[in-house]
Design goal:
This protein has about 400 residues and is an alpha+beta fold. The protein contains eleven helices and 20 strands.
Length: about 400
């Protein structure tokens, strides 16, 4: 069957929402447990179940049985595995400050952890697999995030306003060397501070923010986030290091792309997230989980830049594509108002309906999807048509080009 409905697993992480995913799936809310992420894909930690008329089967094992039929010509390139993982992410509280490795870093780090025999559940474990994890998030609601190191002059300006006594010596060195290397030294000082120094830096920063909030500073939102983050993670150095990052606000339909080495944190909102099929995360704060500071410093990109929302590109066929450099995935959106869309399927795809009611049809097979429902489409589907009224997100592999080393 070229089109199969999916049943997907929900991750109950503590930062999750009690309403967003339930509302999407038209279930009662608020839920008793937080619902942080719904995984749509074939990741072995939480594979979707493909629903047949008389049974269900985990998507990872289904693809493993017939990789060419599901993945098409790219089966060998992706080692007979679905190369992407689609998620619905619902953050009621901020996620950890984190970054993801590039392909070479992931492979090396995974091999090192394996050679040392460190269990994957051990806090000393840094890498869960040998794959990189670029990702994109498209907002379903208003969404706030931290992404990448901001322009150095802006970082120097905000810390000048904060006027944290304990940071004055290292800030003076940063001001004399306003470069990526100077930024690296400043961030390293924060990340590697011993506990008494860390607590002093955080407490002084928070005290300063309390006096600065409401003074019409250009950094007003940063000061407010500092106070909120400290309430959630008191004494965590991420409360301070977040001042080095771009604060971005996405409206529904806007997206953010996070390549390897990008230090980021999702602060709040609901969105559609698509990534390479990996679970590699290196954390730098705002979390009770393990922080691997030395490894994070090794993989981070300290190049400052200005971040802006990524907007979709409309094609002639009504499909809106979010263009990125990722080989493993491409995210697009269809918004139909009784129009019809058709396209040729050449690899495994996952479709998620976020609004309305639509019908996917190919080779004499059809499947109706309503809000919150999803489907997997195989590489041998041929021409797929979509009709109805509503919104669908489409996850497929990216364009063929040289992958990250």
């Amino acid at each position: 069957m070229p089109i199969l409905p999916l049943r997907n697993q929900i991750q109950p992480y503590a930062w999750g929402s009690h309403s967003a995913i339930a509302q999407l799936q038209q279930r009662p809310f608020p839920t008793s447990e937080p619902e942080a992420e719904m995984w749509l894909g074939a990741h072995p930690n939480a594979p979707s179940q493909a629903i047949f008329p008389d049974h269900t089967q985990a998507l990872d094992t289904l693809i493993a049985e017939e990789p060419s039929a599901w993945l098409g010509a790219s089966a060998a390139e992706f080692h007979q595995q679905l190369p992407f993982l689609l998620k619905v992410l619902a953050a009621e509280s901020p996620l950890s400050l984190q970054a993801h490795p590039n392909q070479a870093q992931a492979r090396q780090g995974f091999e090192e952890d394996e050679a040392l025999g460190i269990p994957k559940s051990d806090r000393r474990r840094r890498y869960q697999d040998a794959t990189h994890k670029p990702e994109i998030l498209c907002a379903l609601t208003r969404f706030e995030a931290l992404s990448g190191f901001q322009r150095l002059e802006r970082s120097l300006a905000v810390f000048a306003q904060l006027d944290v006594p304990t940071l004055k010596p290292v800030l003076a060195r940063f001001a004399k060397d306003p470069s990526s290397s100077g930024l690296r030294e400043f961030f390293s000082t924060l990340l590697q501070a011993d506990e008494p120094t860390r607590l002093q830096i955080v407490n002084e920063t928070v005290a300063s923010c309390r006096t600065l909030v409401g003074k019409n500073s250009e950094f007003e939102k940063n000061f407010e986030w500092c106070l909120r983050l400290n309430d959630l993670y008191p004494g965590d150095i991420g409360v301070v290091s977040q001042f080095l990052l771009n604060l971005i606000e996405l409206e529904p339909g806007e997206a953010i792309y996070l390549p390897a080495g990008n230090l980021h944190a999702y602060l709040g909102g609901a969105g559609i997230e698509l990534m390479a099929n990996s679970d590699n995360v290196l954390r730098g704060g705002l979390t009770p989980k393990a922080v691997h500071g030395a490894e994070l410093l090794r993989i981070l990109d300290f190049s400052p830049f200005e971040v802006a929302p990524l907007r979709s590109v409309q094609t002639d066929s009504l499909e809106e594509i979010y263009v990125t450099e990722a080989r493993e995935f491409q995210l697009s959106r269809l918004r139909l108002h009784q129009e019809s869309w058709s396209g040729v399927v050449r690899t495994a795809e996952i479709w998620l309906c976020t609004e309305g009611a639509l019908i996917l049809a190919a080779k004499g097979c059809s499947l109706a999807l309503t809000q919150g429902e999803s489907a997997v489409v195989s590489a041998n589907t041929g021409t797929l048509s979509v009709t109805g009224c509503g919104t669908l997100f489409r996850a497929t592999e990216g364009s063929s080009h040289t992958r990250e080393p």
